[in-house]
Every structure is written in structure tokens, then in C-alpha cells.
């Protein structure tokens, strides 16, 4: 039975996603006629190119795999991968955008993964270095993807990947792992764990399950075995098969297991990771890898059990790491040791003693440069007015250029002005490595003034683009790319950063734009770390008024869903061109933006309030608005996660916006408006009575004219 027949015979509730068919000329245009400078990968199948391709009304970054005539994969594998990925959608499985099947040309178009493969980082020394915590998170993501394939595809048949290896685990911009390359995959019933598929043995030496190799019986436990090899690769940074050493130790599995038996577990750990892994976590990780490699398939864990095991190891490592005293490196000067438990009250004194007090809560060292004051003076042309920028929170901010030509942004703070927030921002930024997060290049101290030096974003902020009515620089493709990348940054902060973070500053003014209109998230002074329970309570409400979720102000509860709320408001602002807190209707009455958009969505009148500068299909824009409305729901558990938001933006998952909640919001909005109108009318009449002395004893008429209220409500839509 073919893949298509199996998927079509599955539950009728399952709806496969469309896969775009490109012409060969579109592929040539996207790859600049297969320019060698765009090659990002090679293999037995052929070459992979990075390109920009138009899909409908969207312009997407893509990885374009061109199968050569001499490829190990042929038409069967090509068709299998198309049918497989067209029906599988998961945040840890690579997305297939489309394909081209033109004569002899067989080409697959995937979403672009900017951080390459896991193999690139552990075997080819690709920067940056993968910390131990990040490696654990990558392993957890890959394990979740395989568990989905084995048991949770939404169809009656699971998928056995059959070629699990580090080079088939891709890493997106948030370092989230994605399983790729389904050319060798097989399918089988998911409700029978012991079910096997008789097949010719295919796969990659070093990862092949010995039981499968000997019997030809392929089971899901064959994927588990291969994943065990990947775990040892991650720990040891050795290839599955290394022919550069003596033949006895060619195989990683044999070498690692023999070393562990001889009591040399710590010696097999890569030198860059030693002393970074707690002894307890090391033992548990090695034990889990050994269980995956058990000679009897039935004794191996399921991928669901592997996920649980890895998550437990991660939680233990993070708990251990948070109490360690870590060192912070300065490019000019000695290395200092700081404890995260150090009393912050000494912060002001530390400024005089060490120039700046920075601490890191766990993780790897990060070098930040200390600039001398003359360098800052020269770069900003003595803080000239011509270089002065409009800055958030009224801090003097200047653009500048270093002697090497690098553009910078310099923000000035005083020693006593919100010192803790500056330290909070610095301690977080030095931990983050993401192409869409502003980089803290360094700092300078001059007397009582502190200057932070960031990389420069020449296109100002997203707020300048969407709130300036005469600005025509922001078309649909740019806006979509910005919103999608902001969503991916939040996924990174919430789940994949070295320390989990609630950003608390999602707003257009905090999103800087570089020369290519790529977003750079800035303003991390409100950010706070969260634990694995995804919530923390703060008695001090910090953030931008209008963008804070209700639960932050009411209960001081900070969680990732608070950022989701702010992101939803950002989306609604972007599509309407209206500013943050209130907008004014034609009757000059104030209304909360989220309610106003929701009511127009209910009434089918979105076209009346959308920004006319954004020229895009009405159906696509409606879906975009619905994503924003999903995010601003008042019931916290009803809001999607940022991972789910990214899937919705990519069209991977469907949208289900509860009409009942929107109607409840409309009724609540009307009730508040009535109460406010009554209060204003009563106060106005009281003033009039006080001014007219002859009528001091006249009662206030409580049956006042409600025409203004009714006009406003009718403008919003029927009750």
C-alpha cells in the first residue's frame, strides 16, 4: 500500500496540508541558476542550495535540495518524501514547502534552517559552541519529533524514520531540532509496538540497529537505537564511525560502552564539556543512551520514555547550574567571579570598584568589550545632535561608527538611574545568541555615567513603520517576515535559550529593523527568568502600559502566555496601523484596540479597519487577524503557545477562534462604556447644577439621554 493510500484511508478528521508544486524556472530564479556560492550542503543525493522563493503571496527563505542523476535516492524515495511530509506536521519535523518534478529534475523545497545540522556543530566546529544545556534541549526536540512520528501523527499508521543520525537533525533560528530526510522512511500500525516491517536493509552504517541488520525486521526500536548513537555523539563529539583511528575503535558505540564498563565515563566526554555537566546528569545521560542501544529491541525504551528521561536530566542540570558561581570574561582586564546570589545592594559600589557589575545565572562565558571613553566620543562625533536618535524610555541614544566601520548604537545611563534594570538587561543579553536579538557589544564607564554599546539597526523601529501614516516602506512580505521572526524569537526565549525568559516588552518600539528589515529584539530591561513550571510571581509590575496581559497587573503572574498576549496585540497593531492602548472611533469615543478588532471580526467588517497600505488577499489577512485575536484571549489557558503561533503563521496548523469569547468581550465592552458614560453624564450634570445657583435644589435626572451611548454601540456592532 502506498503512503497516499494509507493517509487517505485514515481518519476523515485529518486534513493533509497542501504542498506547492514549483516550475523549474522558479527554482532556477530562487537559486540564481544554481549558483555554487549558495550551496549550503552536499550528500549522496546531490546539493542543497539556499534561496528565496515565492509561494503564493509569501516570499520565503528556503533550502532547495536538487537530486542528481547519480544520487543514492531515486524517484521512489523522492515521491515517498513528498507524500510523507505533505501529511506530517509538527514543530520538530522539518516542513516541506513544495517540490519540482520537471522531466529529469527532482527537487525538494524545505523551510530554511539557519543553524545547519547537529552534525555541523559537533563534528565540524561550526560556531557558536553548543553548550551542554543547549545540547540537551536539541536532543529533547529531536526525541519529541521521533515520538510524534512513531505514535502521534494523527493517522492510523506511524512512521519509522530508518535514517536517524546527527546530520538529519536540523536546527532552526531558535536552535529547535527538526527531524529531516524521509526518503527511507517506512510506515506501520501504531497500536502494535512489536509490529515490524520486512524490508531490505537500508540506512547509514554506525547507526544501523544490529537486530534489524541481521533479521531484516524493522521496528520503531530501530530508530531508538540510532537515537542512542546520536546521544553518544552529542556527549563525546565523535563520529558514529571514525576510520581515522585503529579499527578496533572505529565504531562509537563499542568504544563508548567499553569505556563505561572500564570506569572511564568522564574520559569519553568531550573536553569542552568537562566540568560543565553535573556528575548526576552525566551518569543518567549515559545510562539512557545505553538503554537505547540495548541488544534486545524490546528492552529499549520508547521515544516517549526517552523524552521524559531527557527532560528530567535537563531539569536536574538547570537546578544544579543555577547555584554555581560562574565567571565573566572582560576583553580588557582580568576575569572576575560573581555569584548570582550576591546582594544587589552593593551594585552602586561595584560600579566604582569594577566599572560595571554583571553576573550570569549559569551557562557559558561570553566576552563583552569594555570601550574607553575616547572611542565612544570619536564614534558618535562627540555625541553630536546629528547622530542623536529617538530612544525608548527617554535615555539619550546616539548612532556611531567604530574605526573598523562597524555601526553601533550608544545609549547613556546614569549610575543611579534604574541601575538594577541595566544589570538585568546586560546579564540576559550576554547569554543570548540569536540573529534576531540585538547584540550587546560592550560598555563604557565615565564618572557617574554608563554607556551601553549595541549593534546598529538603520531602519529605526517597527513602530516608525506602522504608526507613521505617510511611511510606505512596509509591504505585506516585509511585515509577514518581521512578525514571523519575532514569533520565533519568543519561541527561542521561552524554550530554547540558555535561560528561559519572559520578555515582557513585546511592542513595536522594541523591535529594531536592520538594513534588510530583519527584526532585532531590544529592550530586555523588563525581562525575567522563569523556571520549568513556566510561571513566576513578581509583586512589582513592570512593563509597558497597554501591552501587559491582565494577569500581570491583577496577580503579578508572569508566564510565557503574558508574552503571547503582547504578541497578539502587536499583530493587531501591525494590521490596523493603530497605536497601542486606545483608538478613537468616528464618534471620537475611546475603545480598547483588542475589543474593536474583535467586534469587527465578528461583524465581518475587518476591511473597514485594516491598514490600507497593506495590499494582501482578504482571506489571508483575516487569518492573520485571527492569530492575533487568539493570542489576546483573556483566559490564559486558551491562548496558544508561541510554538503553536509559529505553526499557525506558517500554515502548519489550523485556527479555531472561539466566537463565544469575542461576543463576551463585546458585551463586557458595552457594559464598561455604559458605566463610563453614566459616570461622565452624572458628573457633567452635577457641575452644571453647581454653576447655576438658582437650581441648586433641582434633582439630577437619572433618566438621561443615552443617544451617545447607543450611537457608539451601534458603531461597534449589534449587541
TrEMBL record:
The keyword S-adenosyl-L-methionine does not apply. GO terms for cellular component: membrane. It is found in: Membrane. Gene3D superfamilies: Phosphorylase Kinase, domain 1, Transferase(Phosphotransferase) domain 1. Residues 34-314, 383-650 form the Protein kinase domain. Keywords: ATP-binding, Kinase, Nucleotide-binding, Serine/threonine-protein kinase, Transferase. GO terms for molecular function: ATP binding; protein serine/threonine kinase activity. It is a single-pass type I membrane protein. It comes from the Eukaryota. InterPro entries: Kinase-like_dom_sf (IPR011009), LRR_Rcpt-Like_S/T_Kinase (IPR051824), Prot_kinase_dom (IPR000719), Protein_kinase_ATP_BS (IPR017441), Ser-Thr/Tyr_kinase_cat_dom (IPR001245), Ser/Thr_kinase_AS (IPR008271). It holds the Pfam family Pkinase. ATP binds at residue 65. PANTHER family: LEUCINE-RICH REPEAT-CONTAINING PROTEIN DDB_G0281931-RELATED, LRR RECEPTOR-LIKE SERINE_THREONINE-PROTEIN KINASE GSO1. This is Protein kinase domain-containing protein.
